[in-house]
């Protein structure tokens, strides 16, 4: 291992929505919790570990969950709570561990802790410190994975969940990672692995051999292979203050089949988060987008240019639903990204002040029609009256 290798941490809040609700309402601690709406055919969007330990998939009709777990407690999603906790989580990390942070989802991030690590000289000790500080100060349980690239740091987190710490060094890969089932690879997905490899019983070591023997593997497989066998991707994509993009993304669990209702619930949470951020920063935009990345690594994206600049959640979400309906084709989605493009400060929106208002145009047309019928020119709009006054001053 090169001396220049970075120390990358991946931090993920355990059952985030459930943990946020328990922080708000301690009565829910140790109860089997499902986060879901009160609708008749509701589907869970988050489950507590009291349920997950039975290998129950996150995406479940509530009616089926209630049959399996009679004492199930259903909690209605509180999006504002989750967004507030998410913001506090990221801010705390920036202020206390590293400002080289890449937000990967609403409840997880990557950190370059190469400098922070120097205080400890023991990666596991550093991981426990990070975990315990977040729990003590934010009352949120997290799992911390540490390695030399982002992919392996996330794998370490998956292996340590819940509320654990795991370090993966170069020397550990063959011993600890290669014997695992193929489905343990983040970003591969069960459906995709079936399609490519046909055999469900393959190990990660089989995947490594397959990639070595096949020179024409696709970009997704090559990316995973590189992260397992070399330095891999250790670049932290820090969010820039002056950006042409304001977006949020959500990564879905590998083995869950998400239907349209569930995905729209996620899009709604992301949309609320972004619109709140736009308002806080006095930004608005007239160009929005929705992006899907499938487990087959196919990217589907659609942009929509609006007639006016917005920051409003309701309007933003309404248009995102339209885009979703145009894109959705029941594919196995790995990641959802929504956002605004080319945001501007509100006082820079010259179009608002220079472009004729449609309502004004209608009024002017009506006044012109009346004046023509009366063969007089006595009716004026307020704008026309002001223009005449200015002319008289010259």
UniProtKB/TrEMBL annotation:
It comes from Mesomycoplasma neurolyticum. This is DNA polymerase IV. Keywords: Nucleotidyltransferase, Transferase. GO terms for cellular component: cytosol. One of its GO terms (biological process) is DNA repair. The keyword Nucleotidyltransferase applies. Its EC number is 2.7.7.7. It comes from the Bacteria. InterPro entries: DNA/RNA_pol_sf, DNA_pol_Y-fam_lit_finger_sf, DNA_pol_Y-fam_little_finger, DNA_polymerase-Y, Rev_trsase/Diguanyl_cyclase, UmuC.
